[in-house]
Design brief:
By secondary structure, the protein is α+β, with helices and mostly antiparallel strands. Helices cover 50% and strands 10% of the residues. Among the domains are: 205 residues, Gyrase A, domain 2; 148 residues, Gyrase A, domain 2 (2-Layer Sandwich). The strands form 2 sheets. The chain has a 4-stranded antiparallel β-sheet, sandwiched between helices. A 4-stranded antiparallel β-sheet has the order 5-6-8-7.
Length: 552
């Protein structure tokens, strides 16, 4: 007999009666893990989510502690003069819904769903679920950072990890929970050793506040230890999306094999219908969203069967492989650069550029790139004529950071112990290599046991970030400017900096696109011991300019 898994349990955050009264005016619920923010200016919502990404607090608690009483925000004054829920607002919502429905039914114009949106807080989501949430290109996301959060603190009666309902309803529940608790205990133990190690290695410099120094050291320690965190680790994600973006997100999630993902889709749908109901009408209609969801699930089943029939094992590959590029890309890019400035057809421009000398072609591209004074100065869409397809095999922690780029094509495989794991050099330095290896071996065994019974999709939850995952990124040269220059900046994690440095080298040397590669003038190949120090110093200087002193 098959046991139907129960929805995953969520920690219900305690609030006083007065706090609940305040929160009910600005959030669609005060006790669930998914809720929308309402009745707040857009700038306040943005600031709240920006602060949210670096805080261990829920957005509701953060709102109460740091925003509600802040005089410069003025929310307390608004709440003090606000009446009970206004019937006029309900009327306006109903009228808007009727208007949108007329557009849908009379004109069939789905694009209207791009014009209405919502801020949604998604909390206690596993790192399997966060990747699903962040799949879409047409929404904006901010995810809680493993660099700024210590995962040695419990949320209720356990550490910050998810027990998938499939596992909770299986004979593996006790072993899984025991292993997760032990894994987070190991993280906590090593944190108490890693922080003093870096404090000794990098003493506080003259002129740096204690806050700046401690924040930098903490970020370094968290960077090294994040490999111990399992994919079950929970995170908070702030999302802003249009109705259309949310509709597509719901359809994908409702077709997903994970109970957690499907449960979350239902929670999100409930909350979104409170703020943008017109855009959410079709998601669970059998002949509309139901058929779409069924279509997606059917494709997944068919392709899983096709893949199983291949019978092949992965060949050895380096960390980053450039698998596809256009040898003629720079000529085509030069022609594309001219297009908007002429009245000539595309193919004629291409013939003209082909007749130029290589020096003339290079000069043309350099003029198109112009005098860039910072990495935010990016050349125009002519750079989108050149594409690069990379196959990347790196630890899951790197993948989490790079996966959030959306103006490209990205796809990934299931996380498993198949490709081995990485060990930071500092782990050996503090004498913790045996603990690290034990963590990897113990979780690999748990993964294999669960996979044999419940399948690889569920077993992913047990696998730590240190294990490698294979993924593909296909992007044009214009997006490569953005991704590679941003992700090689001094403040970035050293592991993804290494991957992006290699991507740049392959564009230059493997593809031979030296003019394009050289135009990426803000790619940084230097190494930095304390990646975040200069960033923390700049932040401290900004606070000082505003008259805000750092705590010691």
């Amino acid at each position: 007999m098959t046991t139907t898994p129960n929805p995953p349990p969520y920690y219900v955050e305690p609030f006083s009666a007065d706090e609940r009264a305040v929160l009910s005016r600005f959030f669609t619920n005060v006790d669930g893990p998914v809720y929308a923010i309402v009745n707040l200016p857009e700038v306040v919502k943005g600031a709240l989510f920006a602060r949210y990404s670096r805080s261990p607090k829920s957005v509701r608690r953060l709102f109460l502690d740091e925003f509600y009483s802040a005089p410069e925000v003025g929310i307390a004054a608004v709440a003090a003069t606000a009446n009970e829920p206004d019937q006029d607002e309900a009327v306006r919502l109903k009228r808007a819904e009727d208007l949108y429905q007329r557009v849908f039914s009379e004109y069939g114009d789905d694009s209207v769903a791009q014009l209405g949106g919502a801020h949604l807080a998604c909390e206690q989501a596993s790192n399997i679920l966060t990747k699903v949430l962040e799949w879409g290109r047409l929404a904006s996301y901010l995810e809680q950072s493993t660099r700024y959060i210590f995962y040695d603190q419990r949320l209720g009666d356990r550490y910050r990890y998810m027990v998938p309902p499939e596992i909770a309803a299986s004979p593996h529940a006790a072993t899984y929970t025991e292993t997760m608790e032990w894994l987070f205990d190991t993280y906590s133990n090593l944190l108490t050793r890693m922080v003093p190690y870096y404090e000794t290695l990098h003493p506080r410099a003259d002129g740096d506040s204690g806050f700046v120094w401690r924040s930098t050291i903490r970020a370094k320690a968290c960077d090294d230890l994040r490999g111990l965190l399992p994919a079950a680790t929970t995170s908070n994600v702030g999302i802003f999306g249009s109705g259309q973006a949310y509709e597509m997100m719901m359809l994908r999630m409702r077709a997903h094999p994970s109970v957690e993902v499907r449960t979350y889709a239902d929670l999100m749908l409930t909350e979104l219908r409170k703020v943008i109901p017109a855009f959410m009408k079709r998601v669970d209609v059998p002949e509309r969203g139901g058929r779409w969801t069924g279509y997606l699930a059917d494709i997944a089943t068919r392709m899983t069967q096709q893949a199983a029939a291949l019978g092949a094992s992965p060949q050895s590959r380096p960390e980053v492989t450039l698998v596809e590029w256009d040898p003629d890309a720079e000529v085509k890019t030069a022609a594309a650069a001219l297009y908007a400035y002429t009245d000539l057809p595309d193919d004629q421009l291409l013939d003209i550029v082909r007749a130029m000398t290589p020096e003339q072609q290079t000069a043309l591209i350099r003029d198109y790139v112009g005098n860039r004074t910072n990495r935010r100065h990016k050349p125009g869409r002519g750079m989108e004529r050149s594409d690069y397809r990379f196959d990347i095999l790196c630890d899951y922690g790197i993948f989490r950071d790079l996966q959030r780029h959306r103006m490209l094509t990205i796809d990934w495989q299931q996380l498993s112990p198949t490709h081995g794991y990485v060990t930071p050099a500092s782990i050996d330095d503090v004498g913790a290599a045996a603990q690290w290896e034990e963590a990897m071996q113990r979780t690999a065994q748990l993964h294999d046991t669960i996979a044999a019974d419940l399948g690889g999709a569920v077993a992913q939850y047990a696998v730590p970030f240190a294990y490698r995952v294979r993924f593909m990124m296909q992007l044009n040269a214009r997006e490569a400017f953005h991704l590679i220059e941003l992700r090689t900046a001094p403040g970035g994690h050293p592991d993804y900096r290494r991957v992006c440095q290699e991507m740049h080298s392959l564009i230059r040397d493997r593809a031979g696109h030296r003019t394009i590669a050289d135009a990426m003038s803000f790619v940084d190949y230097s190494s930095y011991d304390l990646a975040r120090l200069e960033g923390e110093r700049r932040a401290a200087a900004k606070r000082a300019a505003l008259g805000v002193d750092d705590p010691e």
